[in-house]
Amino acid sequence: MNNIIHFTGHIETVQPYASATPSLASSVRSGQPTPVTRIFSHGEQFLSINSATIKGTLRRSAADIAFLYEQEKTKSDKPLSLKAHKLNRTGGSKGKGESDRLSPADYDTINNEHLIVGLFGAGDPFVAGRLSVNHAIAKHNSPIVIDGVRSDDFLRDPNMLAILDEANITEFLENTADVSEASKLKKQRKSVLSSMLNASTPLEKDQQKKLLDALDKKLEKFKSVSTQMPLPGFEAIPGGDILDHSMRLEVTDGNLIQLGFLLEAMEYFAFNPVIGGKKANGCGEIKMSYTVSSSGYKLPLSEIGKVTLIPYVGLEVSGELLQAALEQYRSAKANKVFNFAEII
Q1: In this predicted model, what pLDDT tens digit does every residue of 195-223 receive, in sequence order?
Q2: At what angle do helices 257-269 and 320-334 cross, to 10 degrees?
Q3: Could you tell me the CA-to-CA distances from 309 to 109, 222, 267 in Å, in that order?
Q4: Which residue stretches belong to region Disordered (predicted)?
Q5: Separation between Cα atoms, residue 289 and residue 173, nearest integer Å
Q6: Which of 86, 99, 157 has its CA nearest to residue 125?
């Protein structure tokens, strides 16, 4: 009989969280900040961390653990093929034609030996993973905007010119003059374009079009781009926000190895708990806290423990069943029963 392990809790943004899906990023007009992910829930829109981001992060942590395991088992620095790495990190990629069919024995092998595919699934061969990760959802739709200005130290502090020789000072002054002239031409072009669009006669429109073409030819000569300009910035979920989050794991009664492996992946992630984008700008650090429960057919939902991911400290785990899961996983690891290479 299979039971369900429920992780119910929240993700806390220790730092602001910034990330945009490709469709969100492509929808932004020039000069506008890049949006952060959102989701509709109960008829309203809320800031969110998408499930794919969370699940992908946990999967990559699991793949790192698997790689270290295979290095130790094989005594090789490079124990896995490219196909195996892709299988572990992304689930592989489905090619043309039908996937190879797996037998019940294959699934048993996967769930007991290739824990990454058992947990997170694969595309080729297709395997539905046993772990379900939900979106993390904030209680509001009010992001912060982090922007700035790209500045030129040589313009802000003329004394900087003292570190340049005469030839470089000349180049700097020429570039500055080019940028200034190009800026004037762009303003003029904008005015001419507006006049052309609002022209009342074909003759007037043709005249403005000729002026526009002439300005474009002049602008082609200027290759320098201003280094002192405002940056559009990006939206972010504020630091210190609490986002509701949950995960579910299907386990076979008595077999807790996959649960132990998931906890081990979370432990690994705790030592670099950063997700999303703009990491170099101080974004993405998170903390995770869950109450863990178990349920099954004709079995009530009952709490079995708690899990807290503390950044750069580790994973705090309480509860006899959760501790037993970690012991099962670590015992199997010590006996080298896992195989994180290619499935077929």
Answers
A1: 777 878 887 788 778 777 776 776 666 55
A2: 90
A3: 30, 53, 7
A4: 79-101
A5: 57
A6: 99
